[in-house]
Amino acid sequence: MSQVVLTARNRVGKGSAEARRVRRSGRIPAVLYGRTGQAVAIDLDALEFSNKARNVSESTIVKVEVDGKSYDAFVKDTQRDIVAGSILHVDFYEVESGVALRAHVSVHVHGTPIGVREGGVLESPLHEIEVECLPKDLPERIDVDISALKVNQSFHVRDIALGEGVRLLSNPDQVVALVKFAREEVVAPAAEEAAAADAAPAAGAPAAGAAPAAAPAADAKKA
């Protein structure tokens, strides 16, 4: 996949009023945070960014060209209008070629496990791992084929095949995917419920084994 290239320009004005003006002109205010801590205020073409950044994740290195100067960077944060869905602001973090970095890479499982076809249930609790590598070696995503998993089998982080120069930082014992038997719901039979109801004494009835109540004494004869 070719690297995404975004064209930007330096932004002189600051503040919310300037940001609104930039958005009205069809652009997105943004900040590029450099390796040494400096922050450069820029703005981007809204349509270009929406189209090109559609498949960009936090582990994707894009090229940002600002008035003729080029930067390799991550898209670290994208703020959106929760009602309109439009992009309000973007934060970029520059990466340095030849210097190792740490990043979270998304993990995608694919394939239908053997165990699922046999009646098992698939669970995939992990969706990203942390790695350390040079920017040129950073994978955009990791695809894991789980079609060979049988019931009661698991695929762990340690089983992921990482490229040369990529070091795993996440816990290797974390489960990426597992297949287990479906839990059967236990329902009491209707007959057992009816028998339990019959065994319960009726209201006012004597308990089993109890002596019958004494008959009331006859009225004394009148003198």
Question: What order do the helices and strands follow?
Answer: EHEEHEEEEHEEEEEEH
Helix content: 10-25%
By secondary-structure content and strand pairing, the structural class works out as mainly beta
- Judging from the principal axes of the Cα atoms, what is the shape? elongated
* Spatial gap, N to C terminus: 119 Å
| Strand percent estimate | 35-45%
Brief write-up:
The chain has 223 residues and is mainly beta.
Task: Characterize the structure shown.
13% of the residues lie in helices and 38% in strands. The protein is mostly beta strands. Strands 1-3-2-6-5-4 form a six-stranded mixed barrel. A four-stranded mixed β-sheet has the order 10-7-9-12, with no helix packed on it. Strands 8-13-11 form a three-stranded antiparallel β-sheet. The chain is elongated, with a radius of gyration of 34 Å. Residues 217-223 have low confidence and may be disordered.
